[in-house]
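In response to reviewer comment 3 from the previous cycle, which asked for concrete evidence that the modeling workflow produces usable outputs, we include below a single protein chain processed end to end. The sequence was submitted unchanged, and the resulting C-alpha cells are shown without manual editing.
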Amino acid sequence: MTSFRIVEHHGYQDLFASLRSGFEIGPIDIANPTRREIDEKLQNWPVVYTLSSTSEIYIGESRNAVTRMRQHHLNNEKKNLDRLHIIVDRTFNKSAALDLEAYLIRLFSGEGQFSVLNRNDGIVDSDYFNREKYQETFDEIFEELRSRGFFSRSIEEIQNLDLYKFSPFKAPSMEQATTGAEIVERFLRDKRLGVQGEEVVQGGAGTGKTVLAVYLLKLLRDIERSDVSEEREADTMFSEFFTAENQELLTGFTAGLVIPQQSLRNSVKKVFQNTPDMGDIEVLSPFDVGEKEGTFDILVVDETHRLNHRANQPSGMQNKRFREINEGLFGEDRDDLTQLDWIREKSHQRILMIDHNQTVRPADIRKQIVDELVTQAQNNNRYFTLKSQMRVKAGSDYPGFIRALLEGRVTEEAPDFGNEYEFGIFSDLGNMRDAIIERDRKFELSRLVAGYAWMWKSKRDRDAFDIEEGGLKLRWNSTDKDWINSKNSLNEVGSIHTVQGYDLNYAGVIIGRDLRMDPHSGEIYFDRTNYFDKKGFENNPRLGITYSDQDILEYVRNIYSVLLSRGIRGTFIYVCDEPLREYFMKYLLHLD
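The workflow returned the following C-alpha cells.
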C-alpha cells in the first residue's frame, strides 16, 4: 500500500481558506482523515508540491504548505501558475522531502515538457536513513504524476536525454558541492576586490567536471536574479550566498562556458536554451572566445586539456583565425601562444576543468602546460580534485583497472565490479554487435565505438564500408554533431570525437590494430600503419616537435581509456590484434 497521496487544487491564492470550503483531495494514508488531520498535514509536515501552468512549473518543499502558498502568491513570477499539487506522505521527514524535490526538479528539467522556474539553491545529493526505500516511493509518485499528464516519458527515457544528463539542476555529490562552494566563495571575493582569479579542478573521466561547470554557472545566475527577500527553507552550504550584497555584486555579470569539442558544445547549448535565465550564458568554442568583443567576468572551461597550442588546424580557415586572434589580442602571432592564453586575456576570472589523461591529439596543449597549471594553482591554494567516479556503475576500481589493462600491467583477473555492471570481452565482433543491439532495445543509448584504426571511406562514398572485421562490414559515424542521438547511430561506429564527454548505457568498444602486443616481449605498442586520424600523429614543425610512436602511444591509450569509460551499465570489448586479444582474454570475463 502506498503511503503518499497527491492533493490537487486549482488556484492557490488562499489555500488555508480553501481547506475549509472544500476541494478535491486524494485520501491521505490515515484511516478516515478528518478535516483537522488534513489541515495539520498541510500546516506542520514536510511536503513537496508543484505549481504549474500549461508551460511552466515550479517544484518546492515546505513544512507549512499553507504559509508557503501565501508567499508564492506575492511573487509576480509565479502568479500565472494556477494549478497546485501537494504530495503528502505520512512517512516523510525533511531529508526525504528535500530528496524528492530535487528528484522531481531533475526529471521535469530533463524531459523539457515544462520550463522549470526553480532557482538552484544548492540541494546536495546527501544520504540519509532508509533512502533506498524512500526512493522506491519516489518512482511511484512519478508514475502518479505521469498518469496526470505531467510527464510523457518514462524515468529511463528521461534519464537518457541530454537535457537530463547536462541539467543544471542535477544535485551535486558532497565532493562536488564542497568544491563548488569554495569556488563560488573565491569568485565572489575576487570580484569584490576587483582582482583576477583562476581555479583549477582536476578529475578523471566520470567524476562530473561538466556537471559541476554547468551547475556553478546556474548557481551564479540564480544568485544574481533571485528574490533575496524570499524565505529559503533549504538549509544547504549554498544558501549563504543568496544575499543582497552578492546579488548587487553579480548584477549584469557576463559568463561563458568554453567547450572545445563541437558535438558536446551543441548539446550543452540546447540545455542552456531550455533553462530559464541561462539563455544569455554563452556556450563557446575557443575560437569564439578569441573573436568576441570585450571580456567576460567569468569563463568556465570544460576539458581544458583539449585546448590547442599553435599547431596545424583542421582547415586553412582555422589556421587563419588562429593567427588573426593572436595578432588581435597580443599584437603578434607568437609560437608560444595557445588558446589558454586567449581564455586568460578575455576573462577576469576562470574555472579550468582538466584531466591530462584525456588528451587525444598532438594539437592539444602539451602536458607540460597542464602540469604548470596544476603547480601554479596548488601554490596559490586554488587547486581542487574530484576523485569519485560517478558515471560507471562499476565503482572506483574500474578506471585504474582499465588503465592497467591498456598498459599491459594486469596480472590477475579483473576485480568484481558488482552486479550492476556488465563487463567483459567478446571473441566474435558479430556477437558483440548483437549484444549492443539487444541492450539498446532494452535500455537505449547503447553504441559501438572504436579507435581511429580504419580509413573513413564513407565520408566521401556513402555506399562504402569503413570497418571490415570478423566478417562484419560497418561504417563510421555519418554525422559529427550529436551522433549518439542521431537516427542511424545504432548501425554505425562512433569515434573518440563523437563520444568524448557523453554517457552511454552500454559501450561496445572495438580496439583496432593501432594498439598491438608483441607476442614475445608482451609489450603493448602503437602501430602507425593502422592509425588513420591524420591530426592524431601530425608533427609540429612550427614548434620543432616530432612525435615518436611512443608519444602517439600515450594518445592512443588515452583514446581507448575514454571509450572504455563511457558505459554507465556496461562495457563490452572486442580486440582486433590477436596477441593483444589473448592477453585481454586471460583476465576478462568471456561473453560469447
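The longest helix spans residues 174-193. We consider this sufficient to address the reviewer's concern, and the full set will be provided in the supplementary archive.
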